[in-house]
Amino acid sequence: MILLFLGLTYQITATDKKMNDRWPDVDNPPKTLDGSLFMLGNLSIGGTHTPAIYNENEVDLDLSLDYEGIKFMQDTVIGSPVIVEGITSEYRWGGRYAIHTGLPSVIGWSWHTRQHNSLLDRAVVDKRIERVEEFYNTTDISFAKEFLIRYRVSYIIVSELERAYYLPEGLDKFVTMANLGELTIVFGDLIKESAIIYKVID
Q: Is the dihedral of CA 140, 141, 145, 151 positive or negative?
């Protein structure tokens, strides 16, 4: 009975300790079953927040920006369109939009993709990862358009993670493509730092 009681109290007593271990600067995390609200960091009584900060590629990322973008996609995207987002090694911040929305992405976690497609030559997965990196870094709009068509991409994610990993001039091509009418910004803006979600115009 004692062991059963201790097991039942674990969730209550361990949650704060686990949060403090993962996010030591977050003193007042949201207490909820919503597994994505950790991105908001400290939640005040008035509803404002001090975001969770995550270091990726030696850059501090404000996770609340991605929370807003992910929430937008959860609330508005219909069906299962393909997205493309930045790639990192496993157990990092890469793949966060696919993880939190359930939408298919051009490439997910490298090792998971290899496990799910175990008969594939590993070079096939490596090539897909390289293609995504080339897509974000290139200034060649023709290459970017060919990539979007080949992988049937509907949404492009550009947030702090992509800015931490990919070349600024590569990311600037999306603004040019939007000005040309090939993309449209459906979330975020270019005036302030935000997650930006581009929709591919068919």
A: positive
Count CB neighbours of 93 within 10 A: 21
The span from the CA of 98 to the CA of 101, in Å, is 5
Instruction: Identify whether the C-beta of residue 174 lies closer than 8 Å to the C-beta of residue 198.
Output: yes
Contact criterion met (CB below 8 Å) for 165 and 86:
yes
The two tokens of residue 17 are 């300790």
At residue 82, φ and ψ (nearest 5 deg) are -80, 135
Query: Could you give the CA distance from residue 51 to residue 38 in angstroms, rounded to a whole number?
Result: 9
The per-residue pLDDT for range 28-73, each reduced to its tens digit, is 777 778 888 888 887 665 656 677 888 888 888 999 899 999 999 9
Residue 146 DSSP label: H
**Tens-digit pLDDT profile for residues 62-92:** 998 999 999 999 999 999 999 999 998 877 8
Provide the residue ranges of all domains of the chain, joining segments of one domain with +.
1-50, 63-200
Burial of 199 (0-12, 13-18, 19+ CB in 10 A): middle
Which residues lie below 8 Å from residue 38, measured CB to CB, with a gap of 6+?
19, 22, 23, 26, 29, 30, 52, 63
Query: In whole angstroms, what is the distance from residue 25 CA to residue 14 CA?
Result: 17
> pTM for the full model?
0.84
Extended beta strands in 58-136, E state = 59-62, 82-84
